């Protein structure tokens, strides 16, 4: 498997993660692979505001549990826009609602190679 350089070049990727260090590390890694990172943001409200403002988003990485809220309204908005996304979470698959059971999931801590593979589909 390649290191992912160039695979995400030019892709605009929304990052929704409420833990600052994880968000910063993920954003830095994605930028290092040539992606343009939208965010990161740590709440449903901020993510939905970015979706309203940003015309082109190619993919998204969503943490499911954002402090006291779940990211599912953002997932629904992305589905309506037909934007692919990945859940980056510590949750087991059975916890995720049925309507999102086919959404790819990366367990935390996120393996960057696995995330690259999922975002490059």
Verbal overview:
This protein is of the alpha/beta class. It has a single domain, classed as Response regulator (Rossmann fold, 3-Layer(aba) Sandwich), CATH 3.40.50.2300. The chain is 33% helix and 22% strand. The strands form two sheets. It has a five-stranded parallel sheet with strand order 2-1-3-6-7, sandwiched between helices. Strands 4-5 form a two-stranded antiparallel ribbon. Strand 4 and strand 5 form a beta hairpin. The mean pLDDT is 89.
Assess the beta-strand content as a share of residues: 15-25%
| Named CATH topology | Rossmann fold
Q: Give me the secondary-structure category.
A: alpha/beta
- Mind telling me the C-alpha Rg? 13 Å
Distance between the termini: 14 Å
Mean pLDDT: 89
Helix fraction bin: 25-40%
- Overall tally of domains: 1
Mind telling me the CATH class?
Alpha Beta
Reading the helices and strands in chain order gives EHEHEEEHEEH
Main sheet characteristics: 5 strands, parallel
Q: Looking at this structure, what is the CATH superfamily?
A: Response regulator
The name of the CATH architecture is 3-Layer(aba) Sandwich
Mass-distribution shape: globular
Spatial strand order of the main sheet: 2-1-3-6-7
The number of helical segments is 4
**How many beta-strand segments?**
7
Keywords: Phosphoprotein
Protein name: Response regulator
InterPro entries: CheY-like_superfamily, Sig_transdc_resp-reg_receiver
